[in-house]
Write a structure and sequence with these properties.
Largest sheet: 8 strands, mixed
Shape: globular
Oligomer: single chain
Number of strands: 35
Distance between the termini: 75 Å
């Protein structure tokens, strides 16, 4: 084969990817799922050689990769084996700060025309592996993906294995001669991430492998009604029941709170102050291991047990909150919430697996509102953007119902920035920078700071500017409210940037919008495959003052002005000169009004055009001209 089949422009293409999946019992109780992977690649050109020279196999959680083997067959038939010491393991940090590991190895002798083969054994050790996701897409095109599945025999479980495809149509499960069941998907394009796309589970082809009674999901309405009752009555009723310690803590926490909303905020702040997250950086490995080892086997820890330990998992902290809320006259219910970064949930997916988060709903003036104590980087009134606009099953001992969590408005997540600068004749600017962030915009920055020493936080602030302006001198750095999500995150520094503006003879060219300088376009690609899903609504307000050098004035400067783009929001840019010596720029951007955050792929040209126009205006350059001195010819 001399040319690729799936993508004519691909430099490398997989001829096949085969995976044998076995469910195995270790001893009499522990269950593990084993994946035997085999990939064969064809290299077509230098671009493909570069891509296939180093292979990376990401994994994490309770998954381990062992027994990596590889071989390259060169165009002349020479075979080169992968050496064991060429395989190494390293940490991987993905978008959003998610951490995992990767097994990486450099294949020998890769060249155009070569065949590259590698195998690896992957083990998932977890007692809760009734659900496994079988991925069908990799970083290169694949002509044929086949999974061979060997379920547990009937003597070990009465449940039957079945599969549910997402974003693809693989072949129906077919029984092979060796008792494996196979399913195949052909001509799978390479996966390429796009900015602001939905969660990968909503766009990539995959199959959910799971065990259920009769090998199928039950009738949705009946299932969710029972699940909501069971969650409240069987799983959480005892956990929610407060003891005397919980009652005293609740009474102390809400002292002085005069409304239900204030009581809720007081309870959340109390828990965040007095309890630590089980999986957070403030808990040591020894403490975490002790808690996990002592967890009850067949029930949740009670609210009293969680309070006494001073450490809780996210769901436990929310349970404690609900228990304390009941002590101060608030009606609270656990709610199972879908995750926007995962599958696009609909109730027809009748399994609690698809509602992975547990928040607490509180009845405020007859309306249920969701709260998440574990979202420490957000104000007590907000939940993660991953849960906004999602369906949530409100548990109840009698009649559970689905509710929908609201999306936060733009003014809940703001960026307020100001710069008071002085421009020198040589193009240097110098002055004071102030920034304040709230809501989700603050979370993005607080996440990087979490668990770090003050010195490292200040260094990060400096690096933010020096990465864009390598010659910048940053001093007087100061950070406020980094660990207090109820307050805006404030950042301050003094900055000096030589050569910020360009001097050309008697003119100086300057880009006045400092905070947008060096920012690439949000949507660079001309085409798009996936829908657009902006994380949250937000609002930006920038005020920049630049004192002009003596003897210089604006030279027919034009303001690109405002941009109207309909219901989602607005963009404004105002420029003025104060006293003939001070250039003042005021920029405002609002996006996501009314929850307008998701757009079909077909709307990409229009959405891209809006953000391209914003970027063009942000990139505006102003010309200053030196006034002619008296007596100068």
């Amino acid at each position: 084969m001399k040319t690729p089949v799936v993508d004519k422009n691909a430099g490398v293409e997989a001829l096949f990817w085969r995976v044998h999946v076995r469910d195995e019992l270790i001893g009499s109780r522990d269950l593990q799922r084993v994946f035997y992977n085999y990939v064969r690649l064809k290299i077509f050109d230098e671009k493909g050689k570069e891509k296939a020279s180093t292979i990376e196999l990401p994994f994490g959680g309770k998954t381990h990769i062992i027994y990596v083997y590889g071989r390259t067959t060169k165009a002349d038939g020479t075979e080169l084996e992968l050496k064991k010491d060429s395989v190494f393991e390293r940490d991987l940090v993905r978008a959003g700060g998610r951490r995992s590991k990767v097994k990486a190895f450099a294949m020998p002798g890769v060249e155009p025309g070569a065949i590259v083969e590698y195998r690896w054994k992957e083990i998932l050790s977890d007692s809760h592996i009734m659900y496994t996701r079988l991925q069908f897409q990799r970083e290169y095109p694949i002509q044929k993906v086949t999974y061979f599945l060997l379920p547990l025999p009937g003597r070990y479980t009465t449940y039957e294995m079945f599969s549910l495809p997402f974003n693809c149509k693989p072949s129906a499960l077919k029984r092979e001669n060796d008792d494996f069941w196979s399913t195949t998907l052909e001509n799978v394009p390479a996966f390429r991430a796009e900015p602001m796309m939905p969660g990968e589970a909503s766009v990539r082809p995959w199959v959910l492998l799971c065990y259920r009674e009769h090998g199928k999901f039950p009738e949705p309405e009946k299932y969710w009604n029972n699940a909501g009752k069971e969650m409240y009555n069987d799983s959480l009723r005892q956990a929610l029941k407060p003891n005397d310690d919980v009652k005293r803590a609740a009474s102390s926490a809400v002292e002085g709170a005069t409304t239900d909303e204030k009581k809720v905020g007081a309870l959340i702040r109390y828990i965040r102050k007095n309890l630590r997250d089980l999986f957070g950086s403030q808990v040591t490995e020894a403490e975490r291991s002790k808690i996990l080892k002592e967890l009850p086997q067949n029930r949740w820890r009670t609210s009293g047990e969680v309070l006494k330990s001073g450490i809780g998992a996210p769901n436990e902290l929310n349970t404690l909150f609900a228990s304390m809320a009941s002590c101060v006259g608030l009606e609270a219910r656990p709610a199972m919430v879908a995750d926007r970064e995962d599958i696009a949930f609909v109730p027809e997916l009748a399994d609690r697996y698809f509602l992975s988060n547990v928040d607490m709903a509180v009845n405020i003036a007859g309306k249920w509102q969701l709260y998440d104590v574990s979202a420490r980087l957000l104000p007590s009134t907000m939940i993660s953007w991953r849960e906004e606009g999602m369906k949530a099953l409100l548990s109840d001992p009698k009649k559970p119902v689905f509710i929908e969590s609201p999306t936060s408005p733009p003014d809940a997540s703001t960026g307020l920035r100001s710069a008071k600068l002085t421009l020198s004749e040589d193009g240097t600017i110098e002055g004071e920078i102030d920034q304040e962030y709230s809501g989700h915009m603050a979370v993005d920055r607080r996440y990087e700071m979490e668990g770090e020493a003050e010195a490292r936080r200040l260094e990060r602030l400096k690096e933010h500017f020096t990465k864009i302006f390598p010659d910048a001198e940053v001093s007087g750095a100061r950070i406020e409210n980094a660990d207090d999500a109820e307050q805006g995150l404030k950042l301050h520094c003094h900055i000096k940037i030589p050569g910020y503006a360009q001097r050309t003879g008697k003119r100086i060219l300057i880009q006045p919008l400092l905070f947008q300088r060096g920012t690439p376009p949000l949507f660079a690609a001309t085409e798009r495959r996936y829908p657009i899903d902006l994380h949250y609504a937000w609002q930006e307000q920038d005020t920049i003052s630049i004192a002009l050098p003596s003897g210089f004035a604006l030279d027919h400067a034009e303001n690109p002005g405002a941009l109207a783009f309909g219901a989602p929001g607005s963009y404004e840019l105002k420029m003025s000169v104060k006293g003939g010596r001070e250039l003042i720029c005021v920029r405002g951007l609002t996006f996501g009004k009314g929850g307008a955050l998701a757009f079909a792929a077909a709307a990409y040209p229009k959405v891209k055009n809006v953000f391209d126009e914003i970027h063009r205006r942000d990139d505006v350059t102003i010309s200053l001209k030196q006034a002619q001195q008296a007596g100068t010819p």
